[in-house]
Specification:
- With 158 residues, this protein is mostly helical.
- Helix 2 crosses helix 4, helix 3 runs antiparallel to helix 4 and helix 3 packs antiparallel against helix 7.
Length: 158
């Protein structure tokens, strides 16, 4: 048995892992609702900001000023989705560990976070980013964040 599987088994058998895993099915359903709701907040923010980057909505409002509120919603949704996702993971980490959908979701998730922090935030601080940078940012943010959602949806089917 590998060290990773042993670690995941210990996590699953921990007090919190057992408490979540053996709880009423409504706890799991509630976690999923919060997880999806957080992700909807995140995606709504990404869509709105990307539409502004493309100057399809509110083109007269300065980008750095406009992006402040949606970014709060984005990071709030990110926290909701991350915490609820971690709680769901703790209940059955050995099951998720071998799931290709979960693995793909985590790769998309990490790439989306790195892109969000390293590139996207900088683009939003610029009033008039160049068209190539705008298009690259929009395409990559959509691809990565929607990739998280689609891979997450695939978890139950693979």
């Amino acid at each position: 048995m590998s060290t990773t599987v042993e670690l995941l088994t210990a996590l699953q058998n921990s007090f919190l892992g057992r408490a979540i895993g053996q709880s009423n099915h409504l706890v799991g359903a509630g976690s999923q609702v919060f997880h999806i709701l957080g992700f909807v907040f995140l995606l709504a923010s990404v869509i709105f900001i990307n539409l502004r980057l493309l100057k399809l909505v509110l083109p007269g409002v300065p980008l750095p000023q406009l992006a402040k509120e949606p970014l709060r919603l984005l990071w709030g949704g990110f926290i909701f989705a991350s915490v609820s996702g971690a709680l769901m993971f703790i209940s059955a980490p050995t099951l998720y560990y071998a799931n290709p959908g979960f693995i793909a979701k985590e790769w998309f998730y990490v790439a989306a976070i790195v892109f969000q922090v390293a590139v996207y935030q900088r683009v939003l601080k610029t009033e008039n980013p160049g068209k190539p940078l705008v298009w690259l940012s929009v395409i990559l943010s959509f691809f990565l964040w929607f990739g998280v959602g689609m891979a997450g949806r695939a978890i139950g089917y693979v």
